[in-house]
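Hi there,

I know you've been waiting on this one. I reran it after we fixed the sequence typo, so this is the corrected version. Both the input and the resulting structure follow.
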Amino acid sequence: MISKKVNELLSQPGIPVVSLFSGCGGLDLGFFQAGFRPVLAVDVDPAACITYEANHPHGRVLKKNLSDLSSGYICQRLEELPAPVRPVGVIGGPPCQAFSLGNVHKNGDDPRARLPEWYAKVLKELNTSFGLDFFVFENVRGLKHKMHAEIFTRFKQLFAAAGFHIVEGELDAQDFGVAQVRKRVFVVGWNNKKYGKDFTFRFPKGQAVPRTVRDVIGDLPEPALFNRALKMANIPVHPNHWAMMPRSKRFFDGSLRNGSAKGRPFRVLDWDKPSWTVAYGHREVHIHPDGKRRLSVYEAMLVQGFPADYRLHGTLSDQLRLVSDAVPPPMAKALGEAVMKALLNEKKKNSISSGRPNTTHA
């Protein structure tokens, strides 16, 4: 049963979309800022769901594994939402570790490699029920590598079978005001019954001057260091401004200098350059430019482009996982604006050709 409060929130303006593999909501935040409204978000991670609910009160969150859901489950949950909420699109990025070239612990039977198939399955069901306009699928560049070429082709075939023609592109977060080099693959699909062969979609082009680590974390005080007795009241500035306790002798012998790279576990950020990609598997958190500790969760969030008032929930390990898996919101916003522009241009063109006044979803 949907509460009265959620009913009111769902009645707010914005073009409704469904979010799959929502994580902590970085992609969703960017699309929300671009004028979309995620009305239903799905993720299996408890910390992700709690975080999403705390930061995105405008929709309903389901803590579910897509691979465990019966056919039509997502459509049924949408039908429970207040009318006339009908999704126009689907956005989401399945966990990408199975395709990451930086993952040295690959497992040939990694079940995460099949998650895009479940994305395509739900996409087809939603398109059949609601006649979607578009979808956005995000993943790591490694998905395009020759070792994954066959499976990537399979995913695109499934997206096409769901009723879409697709446009494939790459974006780098540093081109969109994010202090981080983070290249990602995006597949944007358009309903092939609504958008003809003359329809074109252009990926956004970013700005020329990237932000630096100093730009986003240079003024922060030292964070609290993790210990089991740490209380939130003792964490300065922001609830996520806490970091792993430095233990290696390298943090104390002066060997970790600004911008140096001593293998993946000991990459020291350069004050005056963007960060390397935020990907902290096995707690390989980048080292603060001062060389005496690793980044705090909050610093990593700012490097990812999250707004200062965003908050991650869960344990320290949960938060590091959530920030690592997130899509930088400024990059997501730019893509969302490009999708919005394409939608509005097409509706305007159709309105002119039909002689009817232009209207959009609300």
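Quick highlight: The longest helix spans residues 329-354.

Best,
R. S.
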